[in-house]
Amino acid sequence: MEDVVIVGAGIAGVATALALNRVGIKALVLERSDGLRTTGAALSLSQNAWLALDALGVSHKLTSIYTPIERVFYTNLKSGAIQQVSFSTRANANGVGPRLVHRKALLEALAEELPVDSIRFSCKIKAIDAQQQEGSSITVVHLEDGTVIKSKVLIGCDGIHSVVAKWLGLAEPVHSGRSAVRGLTVYPQGHGLKKEVHQLLGTSMRAGFLPITDTDIYWFFVSSSQGTNLPTDPKVIQSDILENHGKNMPEQYLDIVRHADVSTLTWAPLRFRLPWKVAFGNLSKQNVTVAGDAMHPMTPNLGQGGCAALEDAVVLGRHIGNSFLQNGRIIVPTEMCRAIEKYVEERKWRATWLIVGSYLRGWVQDGGSLWGLEWFRNFIFYKFIFPRIARVIYYDCGKLPF
Question: What would the pLDDT profile of 357-379 be if each residue is shown by its tens digit?
Answer without folding.
Answer: 999 888 887 665 566 676 777 67
